[in-house]
Amino acid sequence: MRIANVVNDSIVDGHGLRFTVFTQGCPHHCPGCHNPDTHDPAGGREASQEELLAAMEKNPLIEGLTLSGGEPFQQAEACAALAAAVRQKGWNVWTYTGYRYETLLAAGDPHWDALLRQTDVLVDGPFLQEEKSYELHFRGSRNQRLIDVPASLAQGKVILWEEQDVLAQFTVPES
Length: 175
Fold this sequence. Notes:
This protein has five helices and seven strands; from the N terminus they run βββαβαβααββα. It is of the alpha/beta class. The protein is globular and about 35 Å long. Strands 3-1-2-4-5-6-7 form a seven-stranded mixed β-sheet. The chain has helices at residues 49-57, 76-88, 101-107, 110-117, 149-155, and strands at residues 2-10, 18-23, 45-46, 64-68, 92-96, 121-124, 145-148. It has one domain: Aldolase class I (TIM Barrel, Alpha-Beta Barrel). Strand 1 and strand 2 (18-23) form a beta hairpin. Helices cover 25% and strands 20% of the residues.
């Protein structure tokens, strides 16, 4: 897999403490992109699945893997294999893409389909500068959606992911 970088302990690339892999290569070239160094598919460096898994396993607090970019679907086969290995270890997978969910499904690309099936939450759509907001959780612009992929595939329609109130489970009822 060709990557630009990794972040060992991200709290902004999905729910919980995440290991984020920034894939190298992106066809979208969104104006205002916060990772323009990832656009060139020849940039970055090669990283093996074993290397990335070993790095993840060094942090016992990691809750999941985030595939970002660049564009993970440009390397869908390798990303799907990494995601499958991560899920076998009990971690969840978030994938960021400049494509719309509907476009990914309609393409009929078996590698894209495999990556979708290994993704728990898909953040879809291009970054739009005019829709940018710092108030959004886990996305850069209002047009981007947080999609619960397993539920969406099962129901045949887009089901948005909703953040659970983790603190609510610790609330002591009043007596």
